[in-house]
Design a protein that fits this description.
Blueprint (H helix, E strand, L loop, with lengths): L22 H5 L1 H5 L11 H30 L3 H25 L4 H5 L14 H10 L14 H11 L4 H11 L21 H12 L5 H32 L11 H7 L6 H9 L1
Helix pairs in contact: 3-4, 3-6, 3-8, 4-10, 6-7, 8-10, 9-12, 10-11
């Protein structure tokens, strides 16, 4: 290598941060990078911790975006809702790709520190539960793993008290003159909704004439896009778990792979998937 070393300061780059906010200060990197505390001497435990911590950060952003999307749909501001739903889909694309890194860990390597996890499990992620509740899958049994943390239960109950993302999409249909039956008069948003033939008929009208109902059509496709990536994330989770622990029970007591496979059958927006068969 020839010539003098490049000095960014010559082109105006700030190089002194005494008493000033730096990159690390803004991001509180000391707190973030000190948050990994392996409980064993196993080399791969750091990978396992970082995989799950970064996933929780991405889920925090997804919750932020879904909440804002719900508010935008409620206020008939659909263009911002489309943008935010696109971002949520990309977040889940990012989460899906992260499983590829975890899959570099072999069963033998995981066995070295699995015992250190105790009963902790991703099954207990309250942010994952919040995403499901916000989207519309409101299985109240899933509140129980958080009963020991009243502040977390309160956050989840706050979500359950209001319409979900899909509820708001259906209420938007009603505001635009579509007959969605009893969905338009629901009062208890905590109740798990079931497939509604009138909702299916409403979406069929939208899909049969997208030019007339373009914004509703685009919203429907953005919702399907979100669930598409959400399902891919779940599927990659199942594959990763089976590759690493086979059919053993999960650390949190679930049936492991068979439990995760059962979750693949859960549809967030059932009428939007069924309408494709009906057209």
């Amino acid at each position: 290598m020839s010539g003098k070393p490049y000095d960014p300061a010559q082109e105006g780059a700030e190089m002194s941060f005494a008493g000033r906010m730096s990159y690390g200060d803004y991001l509180h990197l000391e707190r973030v990078l000190d948050a990994q505390e392996p409980l064993s001497s196993a080399h791969d435990e750091l990978l396992f911790i970082i995989q799950h911590q970064t996933s929780e950060l991405w889920m925090k952003l997804a919750i932020h975006e879904i909440r804002a999307t719900i508010a935008a749909i409620r206020e008939d501001r659909l263009e911002p809702a489309f943008k935010m739903l696109s971002r949520v889909a990309r977040i889940f694309e990012q989460l899906t790709g992260a499983w590829d890194v975890l899959r570099t860990m072999t069963p033998s390597e995981y066995t070295e520190f699995r015992g250190s996890l105790g009963q902790s499990s991703g099954f207990q992620s309250w942010q994952y539960r919040a995403i499901e509740f916000l989207a519309g899958n409101r299985n109240l049994a899933m509140l129980r793993p958080h009963a020991h943390r009243p502040e977390i239960t309160a956050k989840l109950e706050e979500i359950l008290a209001d319409p979900s993302l899909y509820d708001e999409a259906l209420l938007l249909l009603a505001r635009n003159g579509f007959d969605i039956g009893e969905e338009a008069q629901r009062a208890d948003w905590r109740e798990t909704r079931t497939e509604n033939p009138k909702v299916l008929e409403a979406w069929k009208i939208v899909y049969r004439d997208p030019q007339t109902h373009w914004k509703l059509y685009e919203l429907a496709e953005k919702l399907v896009d979100f669930e598409d990536y959400f399902r891919r994330w779940r599927f990659n989770h199942v594959t990763t778990v089976e590759r690493i622990i086979g059919l053993k029970r999960g650390t949190g007591g679930t049936a492991g792979v068979s439990y995760l496979r059962r979750m693949l059958d859960v549809e967030l927006f059932p009428e939007l998937w069924k309408v494709r068969t009906e057209l």
